[in-house]
Write a structure and sequence with these properties.
The chain is of the alpha/beta class. It is built from ten helices and seven strands.
Amino acid sequence: AMLGDKIEGVGIPKTSARDAEVLRDIVHPSHSVWAFIETPQSVIEVNQILQSKFYQVAAMGLNDLSMELQLPLDYHMATGSGAKDSPTADAASSASGVNRRLPLLYAMMAVINAARAYNVHPLDGVFNDPTDSRGFAAEAFEGKRLGFSGKTLIHPSQIEPVHKVFAPSEGEVEWAKKVILALHSSSGGVAVVDGKMVEELHGRMAR
């Protein structure tokens, strides 16, 4: 390996399907290798990229991907100063109510699906405003609901909040305990917890 073992990992920007073959003899076996999925081509190739077993993490690069998809940087950018009453401003205001990440949903789910299929950790992309704690928390919760394992960060102030989001909540821990106990006490592998049926797949989730 050309890269020594003194670093924890290596991130591969704009990862493509051919990168694993080129890089396999360069990185150290102890390195955690991150594939950054941040181009339309890498989204198309994500299954080939992750089935190589070369990467441990698949991280969304949503800023670069948004640019290459030619998405607007922000729905509010259409409203210039002095144009608040214009039709363009009205349209932009209405569009701001649409989830700004909706155009990226296909790419995010493609990465999550491939990552889960090949036992790779999928990470959500960065939140660009470190001063907007509420916006960051909302986006982190959204990423968790979509199926991401975590989120890439741009500022130390985001570390504690992201841990709170992705760590199991008290309610989730309590539910997991109930599921494990109920299934352990069940003779048929099926039980009822809080009025809902649970089975072994719920037991695996709980553990």
